Amino acid sequence: MKSVIGHRFSLDMWYGDDEGIGSKSKSTSYWVSPWAEAHHKLRKQEIEIEQCEFQLQHAVDNEDFEEAEGLRERVDRLKSQHPIIPREERLEEAVKEENFAMAAIFQRDLDQIKEGLGLPRYGLGQVVTHKYRNATNGGGLRGIVMNVELTCGKSRDWALEAGCLERGLALGIPPDECLVESLNDWVKQPFYTLLPDMSDVKKMPPELSAFSVNRFEKIPAPIYLPEDALTFYVKDEPIEHSQLGEHFGEYEYSQHRGRIYKATPKLRLWQRQQAEEELERAASRRKKGKIGTKVDGMNFIF
Fold this sequence. Notes:
Elements: H1 34-38, H2 40-61, H3 65-81, H4 85-96, H5 100-117, E1 127-130, E2 142-149, H6 156-171, H7 183-186, E3 191-196, E4 223-226, E5 230-232, H8 244-247, E6 248-254, E7 258-263, H9 265-288, E8 294-295, E9 298-299
Antiparallel strand pairs: 1-2, 1-5, 2-3, 3-4, 6-7, 8-9
Helix pairs in contact: 2-3, 4-5
């Protein structure tokens, strides 16, 4: 596979139709993820850049060098105004030069900018690994990002159970010693649905898999984890899962970010199904009065 820094920041994998983004019209049949809808302005900037680049190539092919020069200047200006593209380009350049110390600095800067814009750190198709469940401590959990939510989309009960578990892992304490009030901030970070690597099922931590917290009936099943529990998996190693080919195609690899798989159209259908099912579960929770209730004196909102 081609060795590159990874997919440039783009929203086009998150929705089906540009006309539906930010539109109040209900006529479109395409599903638009909340994440893409909230950031459609960035996508519009990218579309304008792509259009100018197409026109630039057309001008070069026709040897209209005066027109090409003007378009090249416009492309450079538009890219400089984009909050993500220039930072990803300098990160890519540092990686190409094998200046990994500088690349790490650029990566932190990029992460801070994304956080400031409300963007998640990891994109669709990115291979990530659990910070506190890896091969060095006898665990092992990695997977491919299938979906991103800007905040926790699970129920209060799920957040109490999984949140105490994850906070306990991060702090090195038993889950029952986790302070419930710390979960109010914990649920406000991005959450990721991962297609887990099943190459060694025996190393799969039961409490993080289909067996317990995520309540799936069988394996292999997606896993739902918070951003602060994840990091890039930089080794160029394959992911094994029976549904890998259904949701993802080829991949690109870089030493800095590892593998990034390209999503298939079926993944968007899966995302839409998950969104519809979650809406039904949320409606059911509202009927039961579980939203906005207090737990140990804390106002736990979902």
